[in-house]
Every structure is written in structure tokens, then in C-alpha cells.
């Protein structure tokens, strides 16, 4: 099983993903593809992401039963911890006014 979730990406990337996967909800694509096709789709995401972000998760033989990659600016960051891949949240960026307050 493969899942790719994209946000704020160009329509051409969404169309490219829709050729290989089923879009079950806006920006959420699922399918059951080979490793080669999965890697090809991730390269397409890397090339076409622009200002958006993406995550790809797939079934694999690990302790948790899956693995994932992220791409683009996102508060959620993958972190390895004792052989498990977990998700860390970066702090919210405070917006300061022109005086630095």
C-alpha cells in the first residue's frame, strides 16, 4: 500500500499522481505500486513541488510496518528514535512586527 498526501502543489503534479494512484480525497492518493514506480513518483514530487509539501508513506517490513518520507516546508519532521521513525513538531514561528516586538 502506498499513500501520498500533497498540499499547495501545482495542478500538473496532482495530474501526474492521478495517472498512477487513486485520489480518494483532495490531495490524498493511494495505490499498490512497485518500488520502482514509487521512487519515480517521489522524484516527480521533488521536481514539481514548488511551494507545496508532500508526504509519502508505504507498507514495508519494519517494526512499525510502514515507512515514510516528507518533502517541502512542514511543521512535522521525521525523526529516528531507537530504530523507529517518529514525527517531531517544530515550534510555531511567531510573526513579529517591524519593530521586532
What does this structure look like?
- By secondary structure, the chain is α+β, with helices and mostly antiparallel strands.
- The chain has a single domain, classed as Alpha-Beta Plaits, CATH 3.30.70.240.
- It contains two helices and seven strands.
- The strands form two sheets. Strands 2-3-1-4-5 form a five-stranded antiparallel β-sheet, covered by helices on one side. A two-stranded antiparallel sheet has the order 6-7.
- The chain is globular, with a radius of gyration of 16 Å.
Keywords:
alpha+beta, two-stranded antiparallel sheet, globular, 101 residues, Alpha-Beta Plaits, five-stranded antiparallel β-sheet, 24% helix
Overview in brief:
The protein is of the alpha+beta class and about 100 residues long.
User: Numbering strands along the chain, what is their spatial order in the largest sheet?
Assistant: 2-3-1-4-5
Judged by helices, strands and strand pairing, the structural class is alpha+beta
Count the domains. Answer: 1
Number of contiguous helices: 2
Predict the CATH topology: Alpha-Beta Plaits
CATH architecture: 2-Layer Sandwich
Helical content class: 10-25%
Q: Count the E strands.
A: 7
Query: How far from one another are the termini?
Result: 48 Å
- Which descriptor suits the 3D outline? globular
- How many strands, what sense, and barrel or not for the largest sheet? 5 strands, antiparallel
Strand content: 35-45%
SSE run: EHEEHEEEE
Low-confidence stretches: none
CATH class: Alpha Beta
Task: Report the mean per-residue pLDDT as an integer.
Answer: 87
Task: Output the radius of gyration.
Answer: 16 Å
Amino acid at each position: 500500500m502506498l499513500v501520498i498526501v500533497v498540499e499547495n502543489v501545482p495542478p500538473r503534479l496532482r495530474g501526474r499522481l492521478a495517472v498512477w494512484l487513486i485520489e480518494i480525497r483532495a490531495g490524498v492518493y493511494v495505490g499498490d505500486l512497485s518500488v520502482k514506480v514509487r521512487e519515480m513518483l517521489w522524484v516527480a514530487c521533488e521536481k514539481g513541488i514548488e511551494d507545496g509539501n508532500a508526504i509519502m508513506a508505504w507498507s514495508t517490513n519494519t517494526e512499525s510496518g510502514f515507512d515514510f518520507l516528507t518533502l517541502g516546508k512542514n511543521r512535522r519532521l521525521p525523526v529516528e528514535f531507537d530504530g523507529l521513525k517518529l514525527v517531531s513538531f517544530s515550534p510555531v514561528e511567531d510573526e513579529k512586527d517591524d519593530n521586532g516586538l
